[in-house]
Amino acid sequence: MGRVIGALVLGLGGAAILLSLGVWQVQRLGWKQGVLVEIEARIAADPVDLPATPDPVADRYLPVAVTGVFGEGFVRVLVSQRGIGAGYRIISPLETAEGRRLLVDRGVVPVADAVPLAPEGVVTVTGNLHWPEERDGFTPENDLDDNIWFAREVDVLAAHLETGPVLVIARSLDPAEAGVTPLPVGTEGIPNDHLNYAITWFSLAAVWLGMTGFLLWRIRRRSE
């Protein structure tokens, strides 16, 4: 009897812990979905003027409209689009009438295409502020000789193109630019794996209960 009680305590206690972890992930899923809805609403809001001192946290995804003239130089950042393939994000410096210099992610060109020159004259860029976090331990070092970058690190890009540490990811340019397809900010890259985690914990709980049932059956067989 003692072995049966011990197996029940171990089995039901372990299953309870695993089930609680699954419930917690379901709660986290609801929270994350709410956060994504808020971010999507912020991204799609009406654009405002560029803040005097944009904050990487408070102003992330802020929609802005900025008017200025593109400067010389650009950076190609390798990107892969689902269903389309590899391309380069083109990031160029923009100087406003007030003399502020900032980065503009103009959009994407296929890897086989030449990079079009930035539009001449005054351009209005409508888009969103962003400070992407794209570099990790597996990201290659940028190839400065061939101007191929692998992450949009705003501080590094700003130093390279001699701008302030501000990046606007374009939704549209006025006048429009031929040859470059805008790739606006979205929530696709924000991880939301809580459903998968919940399924994993619930599955482990089911397996744990199954193993507990098998153990009780073995104990019973041996006691007969």
UniProtKB/TrEMBL annotation:
Does the record bear Transferase in its keywords? no
| Alphabetical keyword list | Cell membrane, Membrane, Transmembrane, Transmembrane helix
Q: Which domain of life is it from?
A: Bacteria
**Localization per Swiss-Prot or TrEMBL:** Cell membrane; Membrane
Where are its TM segments located? 198-217
Q: What is this protein called?
A: SURF1-like protein
Regarding the membrane, this protein is recorded as: Multi-pass membrane protein
Gene Ontology, cellular component aspect? plasma membrane
Family from the record: Belongs to the SURF1 family.
The reply on keyword Ribosomal protein is no
Q: Which PANTHER family match?
A: SURFEIT LOCUS PROTEIN, SURFEIT LOCUS PROTEIN 1
Q: Which InterPro entries match?
A: Surf1/Shy1 (IPR002994), Surf1/Surf4 (IPR045214)
Q: Which organism is it from?
A: Roseicyclus persicicus
